[in-house]
Amino acid sequence: MISVKNLCVDLGDFVLNDINLTVNKGEYFIILGPTGAGKTVLLESIAGLYPIKSGGIWLKGKEVTRTAPEKRGISIVYQDHALFPHLSVKDNIIFGLRLHKWASQDIATTLSEIANLLGISHLLPRKPNTLSGGEQQKVALARALSIQPQVLLLDEPLSALDPESRESVQQELRQIHNELKVTTIHVTHDFEEAIALGERIAVLGEGYVKQIGTPEEIFRQPNSEFVARFSMTRNIFAGEVIDTDGGNTAFRTEDTELVVATDLRGRLHASIRPEDILISPESLHSSARNSFAGIITHIADKGSTLYIAVNLPPDFICLVTRRSFEEMGLGEGQKVYITFKASAVHIF
Amino acid sequence: MDKKWFTTNRMTLIFILLGIIIFLFIMVPLLKMILASEPKILLDTLLDSEVMSSIWLTLYAALIATTVGFLLGVPLAYLLARTDFPGKTLVEGLIDVPIVVPHTAAGIALLFVFGRNFFAGKAFSLLGIEFVDTTAGIVIAMLFVSIPFLIDSAKEGFKKVDVRLEKVSRTLGASPWQAFFKISIPLAWRSIMAGNIMMWARGISEFGAIIILAYHPMIAPVLVYERFETYGLDYARPVAVLLIIISIIIFVTFRTLAYRGEKS
Fold first, then answer.
1. Same domain, yes or no, for B208 and B83?
2. Residues B130, B205 within the same domain
3. Residues linked to residue A249 through DSSP beta bridges, in sequence order
4. Rounded distance between C-alpha atoms, residue B207 and residue B226, angstroms
5. Which of B188, B202, B251, B255 could serve as B146's disulfide partner, Cβ 3.0–4.6 Å?
C-alpha cells in the first residue's frame, strides 16, 4: 500500500537514515521511538510536508516522492490537534471536502456520517477553543478521515490527553480502524500504546529503524539493546481477561493466571512494573492477591538496583535495591516467591 | 480602599501616578488646542477649499501608500515569518531603517532615485509618472517611511499562526495559495489590519520626506507648516485642529470595523 524506501531526512541536529517501511492496505502500523527520534518529521516526510534528502515514497505502487501534499491523499492528525481556530467544528471537518469541490449534498451526508461515527454531532456549531482535549482529538480525526484518505497519519494522538480520555480515545481508534479499515501509521513513544493498537510495530531510534515486527516479536524477541530498553524493564504479557468461577477477574496467559482488577474483557495485554513486584525467599502472607513460586534465571546488576528475572514460567522481571538483594542473599537458580497486588496489573 | 490597600499596593499606586503624568502630557496639548479654537473659525477653515483639498490629499495619498505597502509588504512579511535564509536578520534590520533615518534625509535619498535625472525617475517618466512635486511623489515618500510598521506587524501576526495549521490544510487538499488565503491570512488578519492602520497613520503624519520630494501639491502637515511660517500661530492652528479631529474620527472608525469580527 505505502512504501518508504531508503528515506533519508536531515533534521539539522541529526538525520534519519535509510528508513525502509512497507505498510499493508488496511493495516494499523505503529512507529515507536523515544521523544526527539524524528517521528513527527518522518510522518511529515511521508505526507510531503518536510523535504527529504534522498530515497522515495511509493503509494499504491506509484512513486509520490515529489508529489505535492494536497495531491497525495494522505491526511495527518497532530498531537496538539491543530484545529483551525477561526472555523467552527463543522467547517473544520468539511474543510477538505470543500477544497475537493464536493457537491453540498455529499458534503452534508459525509459530515453527518463521520460526526455520528465519532459521536461529535452535538459539537458541530462550536469553535475549537471551547472543546476539551478529547473532543478536539475527535474533531481532528473526523477532519482527517473526511477526505477518505489512502493513508491516515497519527502523530502521538494520545499523548496530549489526560489518562481518562486517553483510554477512551484509544478504544475509539481501534473501533474506527475496525470499521473503516483505513491504512494507518501511528507514531508514539508509549510502548503499551504501541502494543495495544499496533498490528505491526517499527522501532525507531538513533536515526534508524531498529526493528519491525508484530507486538509479540518486539517485546519477546528484541533484536538490540535499544529495542530491549523499551520492553526489558517491564513485564508485558498477551492473554485473555476472564471471569473465574470464584467470582474474580483473571488474566489468563498460556502459562499462568493473574488476579486483576479491570472492567475490560477479551484478548488483551497485561503489564506489571518491576518495582511493584515483591520478591522473597519465603511465601508471604499479605493482602496481595497474586503470589507465585519461581526460579531466578538471571540477575542484571544496575548498581544501586538490580533487575531479577524469575521464571514461573513465564519470566517476571522484578526490581530490588542492592540492600534488599544482599540481605536476602539471592542468587541465580534459587527458588523464590513473587507477590503483587491485583491493582498493580495494568490491562490494556 | 483602606490604608492597608495603599501600603500593599504601593507599586501599583506609583505606576498609576506615573501613567497619569504621561497620559496628561499626551492629552493636554491636543485638548487645549482643540478647545481653544473658536467654532466659527473652525467652520471657516472647514469651508476653505485649500485646507479641505490638502486634508483629502493627505488621507488619500496615505491610503494609496498603504494599499501598495499591503500588496508588496504582506508577502514579504510571510516569507520573513516562515523561512530562514542566510542574512535574514540583516534583511529584517534593513527593513526597519526608514524608522530610524531622519525623514528629511530619507526624502533626499528618495530624490536620488526618483528624481528626474535618476534611473527610476527616468524609467517612470517614460510611463508618464513623475515623482517630484506630484501626488505620486507624496505616495512614494509615505510608503518609504511607513512600510516597516506594516511588515513588522504582519510578520508578527504570521509567526503566531502555527505552521502545522497550514500543513494540515495542505494534506486536506489545499494548494500553497489556498493555505495562505484560507488559513494564514484569516488568522493573521488582526495583526495585518493593525499594521495597515499604523502604516496609514504614519503616512498621514509624514512631513520631512514629503517637503523634500513634493512640497506641492500641499498635504495637510505641509499646509500647517506653511501657514505657521507665513501667517503665524493663529492661522496654522485651525488647520492643525481639523487634521487632528478628522484623523481621530477615522482611526476610531477603522479600528472598530477591523476588530469587530474578532470579538465574537
1. yes
2. yes
3. A243, A260
4. 12
5. B202
Cβ contact B110:B144 at 8 Å: yes
Domain boundaries, position B30: 1-36
Query: Inter-chain contact B164–A80, Cβ cutoff 8 Å?
Result: yes
Region of B85 (left: φ > 0; alpha: ψ -120 to 50; beta: rest) is beta
B-proximal residues of A, 127-166, CB under 8 Å: 143-144, 146-147
Average pLDDT, stretch B158-184?
96
In a shared domain, residues B10 and B105: no
Query: What pLDDT, in 10s, does the model give residues A59-89?
Result: 998 999 999 999 999 999 999 999 999 999 9
pLDDT higher than threshold 60 for residue A232 = no
The C-alpha cell 461529535 sits at A120
Structural domains of chain A ordered from first start: 2-231 (3.40.50.300), 235-347 (2.40.50.100)
Beta carbons within 10 angstroms of residue B71's beta carbon: 9
Helix axes B39-47, B49-82, angle to 10 degrees: 80
Grid cell in block for residue B64 = 494609496
pTM: 0.80
Q: Which residues pair with A58 in a beta bridge?
A: A3, A63
Which chain B residue shows the shortest CA-CA distance from A84? B165
Query: Which of B64, B76, B89, B245 minimizes the C-alpha distance to B142?
Result: B64
Does B240 score more than 80 pLDDT? yes
**Contact assignment for A85 to B187 by CB distance below 8 Å:** yes
Round to whole Å and give the CA distance between A156 and A80. Answer: 9
pLDDT (0 to 100) of residue B2: 62
Q: Which bin fits B87, alpha (ψ -120 to 50), beta or left (φ > 0)?
A: left
Q: What is the pLDDT of residues B18-33, one digit of tens each?
A: 999 999 999 998 888 8
Say if residues A72 and A48 touch (Cβ distance below 8 Å): yes
> Pairing state of beta strands A266-272 and A257-260?
unpaired
Instruction: Please answer yes or no on whether A49 and B170 come within 8 Å at the CB atom.
Output: yes
Pair B129, B147 in one domain: yes
Q: What is the mean pLDDT of chain B?
A: 89
